[in-house]
Amino acid sequence: MRFDRYLAGYATPLVARPGQRVAFHLSAGVPSSVRARVVRLACLNLEPAGPPERIEAAGFGPQTTLFVDDQRSDPGARLEAALPSPRNLSCFTFGLGVMPTLTGVEQKLCVLGSQVDDSVALLRDLDGFLVLQLGPTKLETGILLPIHQWVLLSVTADCAEGWAKIGYRHVQPGMPQHRQASAGECLIAFPAIAGGIPVTHIRIAAGLPPDRAAFDGRIDLPILMQGNHDLLPLLADDEAEIRLAHHSDLICAWSFRASPEACQTDLSPSRILANTTHHPLTGVKGARWTGETHDRRLKPAHYSAVHCNSDAMTDAQWRPSLSLDLPDDAASGAYALEMIDERNERAFATFFVSAAGAARSSVAFLAPTFTYMAYANAPEAMRGPPSARGLLSAETLLDKADGAFGRSLYERFRDGSGVVITGERKPMPGIGPDFRLWGLPADTLLTDWLERSNVSHDLITDHDLHHLGAAALQGIRVLITGAHPEYWTTPMWDTLSAWLAGGGRLLYLGGNGFYWRTSIAPDGAIEVRRAEDGTRPFIGEPAEYVHSFSDEVGGLWRRLGRPPQSLAGVGMAAQGFSRSTHYRKGRDAADPAVAFVFDGVNEDRFGKGGLMGGGASGYEIDRYDIGLGSDPKSWWLASSENHAEDILRTKEELLSYVPPFRDSKARSDMILSVNKAGGAVFSVGSIAWIGSLADPSSDGAAARITLNVIRRFSDDLPLPMREQ
C-alpha cells in the first residue's frame, strides 16, 4: 500500500448460493474499530435526479463491531518451487532466456536459496547490466540486458575453485539469421565457498520479502543442472524439452507451455510443481519464436516463456476477518458487508446471492459479473461518464490506491504491457455503492425499477451461466440483461443460444454486449486477450491471442465468427459519451402483431430524458445488421436518431481514418426476433436505456415499453413471427 488512510474489503466467493459460506477479508490503513452489517444493495443511485439510494439491512448475517487492522498485499507475479530434497551445490549451471521490460530499478531474475536466504541470484542492476550474486558477494559481469530484447544466459559457478563462467547470446525472435547477434562469454573469480551453497528453493521473477526486487519481463526455460555445462545451444533448440527430460545432470527446468490444465511443466524426473502468485502470464512468445506460426498450439516450444509484472496483483491474500453462512432461504440479489469506521467513513465488500438452478420466479436478471470484474478498479477515464456530484468516495479511494488493489483489464502495468488477467479476490470498490452510474450501480437502476414496478424476479450471474450451463436457467422463462454485458465465455454463449432455441425469452436492455471472448481460471480470475480489432485500452501482442485458461483464440466474438447480432439481434456499432438521444419508431412498429410493445406509447419519437446522458440511446450502442447475423425475420421496431457528433462507429466498423460524421450506421436499433420454438429476443441496443426507464422526469416510454415486453414474454401465448 502506498497510502495510509483507507477502509476496504472483499468477499469470497464473489457469487454464492443460499446455504453457502461467505468470508469477508477486511483491512484498514489505520487500525480501527469498525461497525459491520450485511446489507442488500437495492439501489445505488447517487445522482441528484432519479430514485434515491436504497441500502437495506439484509435480515441475516452479523451486525457487530470488530477491530480491523492493516493487511498488506504482496504484489508481483512470480513462481517458487521447493526442491524435492535439499542440495549443496558446489558446481552448477543455471540457464534461461530473459527479456526485461522495465529499467531504472534493480530486479531479481532468478534466485536459488532457502526459505530464509537468497544464496544465488541473477540480478539486473539499475543500469541494465547482469549481476551474479553469490551469498553476500555481487559480481559485475558487464553483460547488458536491454529492455524488450531476448538474451540467452548460461551461468556456471564452481564454488570450490572460486570461478564463474557466463555465456550469453542476444537474439531477436522472428527475425532472419543476419539479424541475430553473436555469442559472448566472460570469466569471473570470487572467493571459494567451502562446502558449496545450500539450496532448498528456486524462485523465478523475485527474491525473498520484504525487498523481493520483483522482475518485470519475460523468462524462458529456466534450467538448473549439476556440473559445468554450456546451455546456450539448448536454450535455442526447439527440441530442448525432449533433450532436457533425458539429461542425467538435470535438477529442474520449467517450460511454460500454457494449457488449461497447467501453466508449467517441470522437465526433471521429480516433476516439481512451482507455486504461482498473481498469475504470471503464459501463452506468450519466447526466445525460440520464429514467426512461422501465430498459434502456440502448433509450435509449443516457441511459446515456452512466462511474463511477470512486479505490480501484478490478482489475489490480495488477506486473511478472513469474519464469515457468515447464508440462510437456506436467502433471497437472491446484490449484497455487501457494510463497514463504518471511527471517522464515520464507509466501505463495502460486495457479493451476490444467486438463484441459479432454484429460481422462485420465472423472470431473472442476469448480473454481468465478468464485466463488473473487467472494469473493477479502472482509472477515472474508464469508469464511464462522471457523476454530477464529481468524484464519489469509492472513486477517490481507487485513485489513492493507484493500483494497490490490483489493476483492471483497462490498464497497463508499469512496464507498459497490458493487463490480461484480473482476479476477484481483492477489493473492488467500484462494484458497490458510492460510485458513478456504471457497472453494478447502473444496473441497480433496473433492479430497483423492477421492484417498484412489482415485477417479481430473481438474480443469476455470469458465473452461474459459465459454470452451471443450462441448469443455471432452470425454471426461468424471461431473462433480462443489465446495461453492459460485454465479457462472455464460450459456455455462456452456448448456454444462452441453446436456451433461446428451446423457447427462452431474452430482454437485452444494454449495449456493447457479447463483445469480448473471456475465459476463467479455477480461482475465479478471468482472462481477455485483446486481439487485432475492437475498442480496447491496448493492443494485444502479436501472436499472443490464444487464451492460457481455455486454449481458445481470444478477441472479439465478431471476429471469431459469432457476432453479437447472431445471438441478440444487434451488435456493437458506435460509442460516444457527450449526450444520449431518443428513438424514432421503425418500419414494423405499426404492425398490429407487435402493438403490445408500444401500448401506451403514442409518440413517433420516444425515449427522451434519462439519467445516463439525457436520453434512452447513448454511451455505447448496437445496430441490427443482417450481414452480421441478425435474424432477417426480426421485427424492426425503432432506431435512434440525432446523435451527437462524437458518436462514431467502432474501430472494427471502419476501414479508413476518415470519421463518418452523421453516419447512418452509428445508431441503436430496437428489434424483436421470435423463433419457431417460441423463444424470443427483444433488444434495445443501448447502455443508456435503463437510465431512461428509471428517470421519472423522462417521457416514460422506456419504462412503459420494457414493462409491456416483460409481461408479454411472461405470457404463454405464442409470440408473433414476422414473414421475411
Number of helices: 10
Strand content: 25-35%
Structural class: mainly beta
| Tertiary shape | globular
**Alpha-carbon distance between the two ends:** 61 Å
Mean residue pLDDT? 94
- In percent, how helical is the residue content? 10-25%
What Rg do the Cα atoms give? Answer: 28 Å
Uncertain residue segments: none
What do you see in this structure?
The structure is a single chain. The protein contains ten helices and 41 strands. The chain has 724 residues and is mostly beta strands. The strands form seven sheets. Strands 26, 28, 29, 31, 35, 36, 37, 38, 39, 40 and 41 form an eleven-stranded mixed beta sheet that branches. Strand 13 (150-158) and strand 14 form a beta hairpin. Helix 6 (462-468) crosses helix 7 (490-501). The N and C termini lie far apart (61 Å).
Secondary structure layout:
Elements lengths: L6 E6 L2 E2 L4 E8 L3 E12 L10 E4 L5 E6 L9 E12 L1 E10 L6 E7 L4 E7 L4 E6 L2 E8 L5 E9 L4 E9 L11 E7 L7 E8 L12 E10 L5 H4 L4 H6 L4 E6 L9 E2 L8 E3 L3 E4 L20 E4 L13 E4 L7 E8 L5 E8 L9 E5 L1 H7 L17 H9 L19 E2 L17 H13 L5 E4 H7 L9 E4 L5 E2 L1 H12 L3 E4 L7 E2 L1 E2 L5 E2 L37 H4 L1 E16 L19 E2 L10 E8 L10 E7 L6 E2 L19 E6 L5 E4 L5 H5 L7 H14 L10
Parallel strand pairs: 2-25, 26-28, 26-29, 29-31, 30-32, 31-41
Antiparallel strand pairs: 1-3, 3-23, 4-5, 4-6, 4-24, 7-16, 7-20, 8-13, 8-17, 9-10, 9-16, 10-11, 11-12, 13-14, 14-15, 17-18, 17-22, 18-19, 21-22, 24-25, 27-34, 33-34, 35-36, 35-37, 35-38, 35-39, 38-40, 40-41
Helix pairs in contact: 6-7
